[in-house]
Amino acid sequence: MDAREAARLLKGVRAAVLAGDELPAAPRPEIAESWRRMLAGGVHPDRDARSRMLSAAETEERRQVSPLREVLPVLREGLLPTLDTALHILVVADADGRLLWREGAPSILRKADRLGFSVGADWGEAVVGTNGVGTALVTRQPVHVFSAEHFVSSHHDWTCAGAPVRDPRDGQLLGVVDVSGPLATMHPATLAWVSSVARLAERELRVRHLESLERLRSIAAPLLARLPGRALAVDPHGWAAAVTGLAPTDRIPLPKGFGPGRVWVPQLGDCVVEPLPGGWLLRIAEVPGTATAASRVVLDLSRPRAWSVTVYGAAGSWSQELSPRHAELLFLLAESPRGRSAAELSAELFGDPTRTVTVRAELSRVRRHLGGVLTRRPYRFADDVEVEVIRPEDPAALLPHSTAPAVIGARLGRSGPGVPSGGGWRM
Question: What's the predicted TM-score (pTM) here?
Fold first, then answer.
């Protein structure tokens, strides 16, 4: 059917539904179900409701923690090369329906702005009616919404195709990838195309998961080989990387608030939990009073661009190489036994206390490897952890890449409160 003819028919169908009259044609089942939800929820069919837009800082925080950030290259490479960005918008939204990323030509983006189809906007179905983002989130299925299939009339000049993206580890809904544009851009293959790219993104997440388990296994295997009892290494979602003294298992459900120390785990009983890079070491407590968690951390900054952190615990030790930014952050925290707020760290790193979003995002990544060793509010090393910093013999060689004001001050021998100067030291 011609797109304009189809749009006229759908407007007649929608009007009949709203008036309770006989339908000239039946709406597609997924659209009919969505319209019933809109009528029951009180969404106005002719008034474009808007919820509060996320601020730039709030949007960036969501971007930093979204797993979809890892697969943006897959989504872009799968859709943009054959997408006419003068007529289409590529949108990625999180599981709450908040638009986090979008791409398209300035002219089409301006048209989308007039609809509120902007980064930070809430396109949940209960807010803006039937649409390719919100309806896909509700049904957890790919959906194509054309013209007057949108419940709210201001969206009738658009067509959109959205497909959900799930976490292959646990099936959790991560968000939606959507392609939208004016009615003339409608093509029956668009939905299949978008759905295929969403599946490619899920496959990429699966590959990344398996790679992270292999990295965890390479670190955990030597530790497990030295342990006499029953133990296993799991990633933050409970997927097992290595076991000893136990039957092989795929996954252990971890309780809420899971962290280092003595923890009761449903399938295992009383366990002693220690952090590992990218996961946890769980030792089943055979003897009351078994030692817990990490006791010592060595931050080695003595070798140029080969910085590392080594964590010592009851089961042994493990090391992790550090990126330049993470080396800076751990050095600043080691120099500040009482801890630092995100604003204080931002000032010490950038000379600007407002760049807290970047600081929180980087510390979130560091804490994936050092959970239980680092605490927050304020950010600091745990009170029961001994910290040693090994500095280069030449003070000028301390993190030579760094332009952080606090690091420059340390090179010049300036010490803040509670910060000793000189070579390696402990606190």
Answer: 0.70
